[in-house]
Design a protein that fits this description.
Elements (H helix, E strand, L loop, with lengths): L1 H29 L4 H6 L12 H8 L6 E6 L5 H6 L4 E7 L2 H10 L9 E5 L11 E7 L10 H11 E11 L15 H8 L4 E8 L12 E7 L2
Parallel strand pairs: 1-2, 1-4, 2-3, 4-5
Antiparallel strand pairs: 5-7, 6-7
Helix pairs in contact: 6-7
Length: 226
């Protein structure tokens, strides 16, 4: 009986999520890829409305590098706020002005406010004053058109220090058509990161994936070797 209820709940949640994704895709089609419109209308199915659980686990285990940390496509900034401290300065970057406005509002009273900042900019053209020790990508790689993935790999190299690291949460790895989110695989990341000297030091299933992402999400850590 419990298994039947759990299956029904999963089906219902899947239907709701698919509806939100379809609505998001409709907005992007209507407004020429405007993520601002998605935020304006509150159609943000990728947003967990909380810090990413596995990132919090890495933080608790003290396995995140110190120094400068970049979160591209940071949205409302939950991961930025959660990981920033005096030894780790975090930059949240997003193309959507509405998302960054929300992030700044959420973080107004944060006790670690001097340890992070939010910037409205295009990841592919932005030129920071300093590069980064760590970059965290979640629901960003899967949101860009697959034809842009090679440029993503190049930017990761340009924005990383010579011994820098990238953490990627690879989702969705299950079969799906179209996007965003576009289907991803380990091979997709390897194809665009290996030419720039990044090698995987760890690729595992993300046991802390949230909701419907459980079972179709992997955690990978990539170290720049060149």
């Amino acid at each position: 009986m419990e298994q039947k209820i759990e299956k029904e709940n999963h089906t219902n949640n899947s239907t709701i999520f698919d509806f939100k994704v379809e609505k998001m895709q409709g907005i992007l089609d209507e407004y020429a890829g405007s993520w601002d419109k998605c935020w304006e209308q509150g159609v943000t199915p990728w947003d967990l409305d909380q810090p990413t659980p596995v990132l919090l686990q890495l933080l608790e285990k003290e396995t995140l590098p110190k120094g400068r940390f970049l979160v591209p496509g940071c949205g409302a900034g939950h991961d930025v706020i959660a990981t920033a401290n005096p030894e780790r300065y975090v930059v949240g970057l997003d193309f959507s002005e509405i998302a960054i406005t929300k992030a700044r509002k959420i973080s107004l009273s944060a006790p670690n406010a001097k340890c992070f900042e939010f910037i409205v900019a295009d990841f592919f053209t932005w030129r920071p004053n300093e590069i980064f020790d760590l970059i965290f990508d979640y629901t960003f790689f899967c949101a860009i058109e697959p034809r842009m993935r090679a440029a993503w790999g190049k930017r990761m190299h340009e924005l990383s220090k010579p011994d820098g690291e990238i953490i990627t949460l690879m989702w969705p790895t299950n079969d799906r058509d179209g996007g965003p989110p576009f289907k991803v695989s380990v091979a997709d990341y390897e194809e665009v990161l290996h030419p720039w000297g990044f090698k995987a030091t760890c690729i595992i299933d993300n046991e802390l994936a949230v909701g419907l992402r459980r079972g179709c999400e992997k955690l990978a850590r990539w170290k720049r070797c060149l």
